[in-house]
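Thread: thymidine-5'-diphosphate complex, take 2
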Amino acid sequence: MTRGRYIAFEGLEGCGKSTHVTRLAEAIGGVTTREPGGTAIGAALRAAMLDTNNTMLSPRAEALMMSADRAQHIDELVVPTLNSGKHVVSDRSAFSSLAYQGYGRLLDIDELKRFNNWAIQGNWPELVIFIDVPVDQLLERLKKRELDRFEREDRSFFERIYTGFHTMATADPQRWLIVDGTPPKEELQATILQGVQDRLGITLS
Ligand code: TYD
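Output below.
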């Protein structure tokens, strides 16, 4: 049996990732999931990390909780799904930790790469679709939401993360696909589908 392909979406909050995760998975017959919170154990970790009462959570503890979520996710869901021949379409991946805990919280990126690589046993997503929406527009969209612990961070946090995503995408263009997130949903969906077909040669279901 051919192994499924592991595709992740990345971007800042409010960029529209979740819509396109669902739409792409439907188009290619893949399984949708997310980090943090793709498993029952992960959901408990996610609730603690997003809780606005947990203002004392240290950046290193946060990084380890994210990687614990991901270790469970990879073992319980991602690898078994890929091994069963199905594609996995994930809302975020280990690259979010490099962006948020690395560029955002200013933890050492090589260190993060090392222990996240251990957490996921080397299973990095082979295609990462970065939905690029300017920070100004995202902050505008966030005004309409009830904010979680991450979304309450200041503008400079999001700007560092935005720069981080671009830096990673530019350094590894074989793996990353940057798509402009500002056009209407249908148009963006078509761009993403085309990109996935070009990069991975996946046929539509
Ligand atoms: P997510 O549910 O994708 O939020 P949103 O739908 O608002 O984009 O992710 C929850 C938060 O967790 C988000 O603010 C990003 C953050 N995060 C990290 O800081 N590090 C990580 O490794 C991951 C996966 C997410």
